[in-house]
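Retro notes (design track)

What went well: tokenization of the new backbones is finally stable.
What didn't: we kept losing track of which sequence belonged to which structure.
Fix going forward: every design gets posted as structure first, then sequence, in one message. First example under the new rule, 166 residues:
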């Protein structure tokens, strides 16, 4: 069962579901590595045999844990909780781990779908999809979408009611 299945209406069918591209988390992973290196250096530089050295080790490890949670775990959970899905009736974006948000655009209100991918994004096979609608939302921007042109084509085929043959 797909994650989006629980958000579908009775007369809807899931056509496509994806998450943001993994490259979204590269900078957070590098920050985690930096935290580990800095923690190791600080622990290595602490003098041994002092009365306060055991306490200092725990303080450094605690600070490293707090930093890792703040700059790696929280973004990881937010990335994991961001889902884009396309149904026979709407395009939907759900995001957030602690603070959830959701945006839907009925396919009948979609005016235009465009995608953008820089050279690097094309190499890594992700990009940004923008969906212009005649609803109150106006524009829905989906960032770091794997295969953005494929999603654009799927949206147009869902609007036309044509089965996707990708």
């Amino acid at each position: 069962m797909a994650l989006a299945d629980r958000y579908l209406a009775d007369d809807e069918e899931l056509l496509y579901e994806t998450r943001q591209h993994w490259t979204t988390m590269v900078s957070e992973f590098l920050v985690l590595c930096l935290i580990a290196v800095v923690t190791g250096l600080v622990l290595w530089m602490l003098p041994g045999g002092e009365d306060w050295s055991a306490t200092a080790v725990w303080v450094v490890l605690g600070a490293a844990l707090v930093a890792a949670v703040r700059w790696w775990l929280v973004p990881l959970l937010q990335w994991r909780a961001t889902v884009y899905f396309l149904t026979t009736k709407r395009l939907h974006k759900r995001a957030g781990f602690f603070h959830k948000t959701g945006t839907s655009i009925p396919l009948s209100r979609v005016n235009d779908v465009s995608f953008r991918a820089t050279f690097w994004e094309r190499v890594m096979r992700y990009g940004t999809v923008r969906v212009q609608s005649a609803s109150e939302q106006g524009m829905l921007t989906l960032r770091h979408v794997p295969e953005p042109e494929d999603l654009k084509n799927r949206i147009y085929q869902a609007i036309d009611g044509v089965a996707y043959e990708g």
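Added context from the reviewer: The first strand starts at residue 14 and ends at 19.
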